[in-house]
Amino acid sequence: MTPPVLGPILPPVRKSVVVPWRPEAAFRRFTTEIGAWWPLATHSLGGERAVTCRFGEGVGDEIAEEQRDGTRCVWGRILVWEPPARVRFTWHPGEPEEHAQEVEVRFAPEGEGTRLELIHSGWERRGAKAKSVRRAYNLGWVYVLQHFEARRGFTVRALDLLHPLLSRLARRSRPSERGERAASEG
Q1: Does one domain contain both 173 and 145?
Q2: In a domain, 6, yes or no
Q3: Pair 16, 115: CB distance under 8 Å
Q4: 135: which residues sit within 8 A by CB, 6+ positions away?
Q5: Can you give the pLDDT at residue 156?
Q6: Do 142 and 161 lie in a common domain?
Q7: Is residue 4 part of a domain?
Q8: Given strand 72-82, what is the order of strands in its sheet?
Q9: Same structural domain for residues 78 and 117?
Q10: pLDDT below 50 — which residues of the chain?
Q11: What is the pLDDT, as a whole number, of residue 169?
């Protein structure tokens, strides 16, 4: 295996939310029920082609996105599986495994609900892109956790409104397949 690409050592991204579910239910919702709440339209590799994502149920299992055409994109692999207290996994959607960071999610009783604490570390493995990737995930986890909570706060509403525009801009900036074929054949 190739050694990790080293970039600046950066502090982990830490996010915390309190949900009204017992730890067992919060753990299950975050892991095995991920396909029901994960915002695939904005946080997937396939975008509109993504149909679901799945979270394995034990150490070594994959976390993966599934697309309409049957394509599977591995996002990470489970390193620690301790229901209902914590799960830790590698995280590298769309990137080589040697760039994988680690995400640990802890579930602790709080009042009549559960505090979920997410810690995303290992940014140095992203090399020169470490700072910008960390900055994007710092906001991205807020959006994702609001979906987990089934709460449509300001961040979720704003990004949902911007998503169609950003998707159109991204499509315009990519050469079409037909154009690429014509250029290579011509």
Answers
A1: no
A2: no
A3: yes
A4: none
A5: 52
A6: no
A7: no
A8: 13-19, 113-121, 101-110, 86-91, 72-82, 62-67, 50-55
A9: yes
A10: 2-3, 175-186
A11: 60
Beta carbons of 140 and 93 less than 8 angstroms apart: no
At residue 184, the pLDDT reads: 41
161: containing domain: 155-186
Q: From CA 135, how far away is CA 168, in angstroms rounded? A: 23
* H-state helical runs in 65-129: none
Residue with tokens 């914590």: 86
Which residue, chain included where needed, has tokens 């090399």?
127
| Residue showing tokens 């997937």 | 44
Cβ-based neighbours of 22, under 8 Å, separated by 6 or more: 84, 109, 113, 114
Q: What is the pLDDT of residue 164?
A: 61
* Residue 175 shares a structural domain with residue 130: no
Alpha helices in the chain, H assignment, sequence order? 23-30, 34-37, 130-148, 154-173, 177-185
3-state secondary structure of 153: coil
Measured between alpha carbons, how far is 43 from 106 in angstroms, rounded to an integer?
22
Count: domains in the chain: 2
